[in-house]
Amino acid sequence: MTTHVLSDTRVLTARSLTHIVRSPDTIITTAVTPIALMLLFVYVFGGAIQTGGTESYIDYMLPGILLITIASGVAYTAYRLFLDLQGGIFQRFQSMPIARSSVLWGHVLTSLVANLVSVAIVVGVAFIMGFRTGASVGAWLAVIGILVLFTLALTWIAVIAGLSAKTVDGASAFSYPLIFLPFISSAFVPTDSMPGPVAWFAENQPVTSIVDTTRALFAGQPVGTDIWVALAWLVGIMAVAFVLAMRIYRRKAA
Amino acid sequence: MTTATQPAASRPGAPAAPAIRVQGVEKSFKDLQVLKAVDFDVAKGSIFALLGSNGAGKTTLVNILSTLMKSDAGTATVEGFDVADSPGDVRRSISLTGQFAAVDEVLTGRENLVLVARLRHQKDPGRIADDLLARFSLTDAGDRRAATYSGGMRRRLDIAMSLIGDPPVVFLDEPTTGLDPQARIEVWQTVKALADGGTTVLLTTQYLDEAEQLADRIAILHEGVIIRNGTLAELKRLLPAAKVEYVEKQPSLEEVFLALVGEPAQAGEPAASVPTAPAAPSTKESR
């Protein structure tokens, strides 16, 4: 049975990608809010925000916007998983001789593809709005790598939510705090402008190290130790969420 | 224990091993004991009906037999494989058609069939899909999304998806609940054709006439216990002999309805457009 993990995962990924292709609004909705935020921050608030750097404000805030895009995108992963559980097709898959984990991996890979498409749309709009980067190919690859890790980490959290939710609304509610987290970080304003305890939280939560690393990569500057802190957070969150998700899944599939 | 079936082996001419054997299966959810020492056998190639009202434990039993749930006590085997010890082998031998049609509404009917064929690692999924669409009178609707299907079409697609890979044992959990009379008869014909082709069918139902129409053996599950298990004739003998009375036969509303819409009233009459014997689609495994 395990020999089929790859082919079963491929078939099931193709299935849920078809869902996305047939309702592309899920990708567009995911991209609309971050784009609106970007317009708001660049053209309304941005003029009053002092980042202390020489870069334009859109260059400063794009990394945070990309994280918000992904944090809202994974809500759809939880939603799709929840619908499978509700609709009975999950039971059908479970009673078939397929590799059981492939049912989850299909959703996880779909989440990755869908979120990267949303991120690409947002980056495209940012370019139109004046975002410029001197990043080398290597720096771009590093940015993509960080965003992939971030998506996977949040997707496994989404899997936990989708598997344990009782209602459709409950399945996607977990994403609201995740969307909010970048606001209490270095994503939009420098943390040293915040009052003590808030600044402490902002400096020590995962988003700040991820944002600072991505911003440095886009600017073609050295990333310093930020990248290791960011990677430790990402891999740690992903590992914990993966283990929890698999445990819940096995109990569900018993 | 007095209600337990005689093993199929004791019947003359029957093959030695039953397709399904359930012995002393118990299951509780928290304090609620849903199944209390359930025993029965299902002979290969027969149709076995589990009859019971809502909450009798029918679905729980089907979920245990199809490896979706573990029993608290007792053993159950399907095609000789223990459901607890070798769930993989059991899953290869069965298919489950659950209480709610488990089709992917976003995909077309054909894509649903191709999806299952791929997951069952069949050669030529496209041809299998086309064969089944034809067999279940869904060819015209094959390229429409399943969300647009009527209840009967959806259930037909659901059963068609279950037949891919020719599993020797098919579980149908309340296959006709919520269907209109014509769709019900179509499902009945499909089930009969399956059994004629050698497939073992275990179906659950709350409709007495459904069990009467289809089943070789009927077990009545009541409050977690099989209270009776036998053929229709055996069950009928439990009551006093029929009194002969002369009554004027009034047509039932169902007969009137079917006559008005021009459908055959007898489930046994194969209509031209309905699935016939299961000309098995090409598969890797043979029975």
Task: Describe the structure in brief.
Chain A has helices at 5-22, 25-45, 57-87, 89-94, 101-128, 137-164, 168-173, 175-180, 196-204, 206-219, 226-253. With 254 residues, chain A is mostly helical. Chain A has one domain (2-253).
What this model shows, in words?
Chain A has 254 residues and is mostly helical. Chain A has one domain. Helix content of chain A is 77%, strand content 0%. Chain A has helices at residues 5-22, 25-45, 57-87, 89-94, 101-128, 137-164, 168-173, 175-180, 196-204, 206-219, 226-253. Chain A is elongated. The model of chain A has no long low-confidence stretch (mean pLDDT 88). Chain B has 287 residues and is an alpha/beta fold. Chain B has a single domain, classed as P-loop containing nucleotide triphosphate hydrolases (Rossmann fold, 3-Layer(aba) Sandwich), CATH 3.40.50. Helix content of chain B is 31%, strand content 21%. In chain B, the strands form two sheets. In chain B, strands 6-7-8-3-9-10 form a six-stranded mixed β-sheet, with helices on both faces. Chain B has a four-stranded antiparallel β-sheet with strand order 2-1-4-5, with helices on one face. In chain B, helix 3 (109-119) crosses helix 4, helix 3 (109-119) runs parallel beside helix 5 (151-163) and helix 5 runs parallel beside helix 6. Chain B is globular and about 55 Å long. Chains A and B meet through helix 1 and helix 4 of A and helix 2, strand 6 and helix 3 of B. Chain A: It holds the Pfam family ABC2_membrane. Chain A: The chain crosses the membrane at residues 27-49, 61-82, 103-131, 137-161, 173-191, 227-249. Chain A: Its main location: membrane. Chain A: It is a multi-pass membrane protein. Chain A: It is found in: Cell membrane; Membrane.
